[in-house]
């Protein structure tokens, strides 16, 4: 493989885990298609897409997606790249460029695991949803990867400096997030200047294989929700 090939991978080689033709909730205020890219460096115990953890689990279906999305001009606002972890895909900049050339806006869901790849992708993005899993010092225990908390902090700094619209969001569950942890997470983000933050209740994935139960009714509690909402311009508790 020559240097040019390794630096600029062919978009057709991208490993897709599938796509969702239409979504009104994956990019606030936009109607979009969602492309799921295979591969993720982290191993969170509550992952809802474990079938996308290995890049080899994806298929080279990008040309098929392009042929499909061509017919959606004027019907969709944009395309969101999700995963897995979409920044794990070396060809992501090429995918973004091709979608933008077709007139679609581009969005990204990321856990912040690859800050340098995020920096390269930001000029090609219109919006980013940054997943905040826990407090930075607790990341390694949750993801299984040392240094993952520092990577997320770096990614947040890059986003804030870029001027690209973004929100932070956390998938929460009492097994991984105590009320104190949630308070500290919101205080940390508000102190960093984040203005848009959202929570989503984690639910056991379909199939009944998860070793944990859904959060009890009423969790995380109205007082904590009100306290968190007061810290941000926009805050909500979303259902999965």
TrEMBL record:
NCBIfam families in alphabetical order: NrdG2
Pfam families: Radical_SAM
Name of the molecule in the record: Anaerobic ribonucleoside-triphosphate reductase activating protein
Keywords: 4Fe-4S, Iron, Iron-sulfur, Metal-binding, S-adenosyl-L-methionine
Required cofactor(s): [4Fe-4S] cluster
Transmembrane segments: none
Annotated PROSITE patterns: RADICAL_SAM
Domain Radical SAM core: from-to ranges: 27-240
């Amino acid at each position: 493989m020559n240097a040019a090939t390794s630096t600029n991978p062919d978009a057709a080689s991208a490993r897709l885990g599938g796509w969702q033709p239409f979504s009104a909730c994956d990019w606030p205020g936009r109607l979009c298609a969602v492309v799921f890219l295979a591969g993720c460096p982290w191993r969170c115990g509550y992952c809802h897409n474990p079938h996308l953890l290995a890049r080899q689990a994806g298929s080279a279906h990008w040309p098929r997606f392009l042929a499909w999305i061509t017919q959606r001009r004027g019907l969709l606002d944009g395309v969101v790249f999700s995963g897995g972890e979409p920044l794990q895909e070396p060809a992501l900049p090429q995918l973004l460029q091709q979608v933008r050339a077709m007139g679609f806006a581009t969005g990204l869901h990321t856990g912040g695991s690859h800050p340098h790849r995020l920096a390269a992708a930001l000029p090609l993005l219109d919006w980013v949803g940054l997943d905040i899993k826990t407090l930075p010092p607790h990341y390694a225990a949750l993801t299984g990867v040392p240094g993952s908390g520092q990577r997320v902090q770096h990614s947040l700094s890059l986003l804030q400096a870029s001027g690209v619209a973004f929100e932070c969001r956390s998938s929460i569950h009492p097994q991984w997030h105590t009320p104190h942890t949630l308070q500290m997470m919101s205080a940390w983000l508000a102190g960093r200047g984040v203005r848009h933050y959202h929570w989503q209740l984690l639910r056991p994935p379909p199939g009944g294989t998860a070793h944990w139960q859904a959060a009890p009714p009423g969790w995380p509690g109205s007082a904590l929700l009100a306290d968190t909402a007061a810290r941000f311009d926009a805050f909500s508790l979303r259902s999965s």
